[in-house]
Amino acid sequence: MQAGNRDIPSLDRRFLWHPFTALDLWLDEGTPMTVIAGGEGCVLEDSEGNRFLDGNSSIWTNLHGHRHPKISEAIAAQLGKIAHSSFLGLSNELAPLLAERLAVSMADLTGGAPDAWRVFLSDDGSTAIEAAIKIVVQFFQQTGQQERAVFVSLGGGYHGDTVGAMSVGHSPVFHGTYKDLLFQSREIPPPGCYRCPHNRAVPEKGDARDYRRCQWECVADFEKTVVPLGEKMAAWVIEPRVQGAAGMIMHPAGYLEKTCALAQSLGAKVILDEVMTGFFRTGRRFAFAHENVKPDLVALAKGLTGGYLPLAATVIDESMAAEFRSIERTFYHGHSYTGNQLGCAAALASLDLLDEPEFPALLQVKAARLAEIGAGFWSHPNVGDVRREGMILAIELVEDFATRKAFAPKRRIGAAVCEAAKRFGLLTRPVGDVLLLMPPYCAADEQLEEMGNALYLALCTVCPAA
Question: Residues 423-450: pLDDT tens digits?
Answer without folding.
Answer: 999 999 999 999 999 999 999 999 999 9
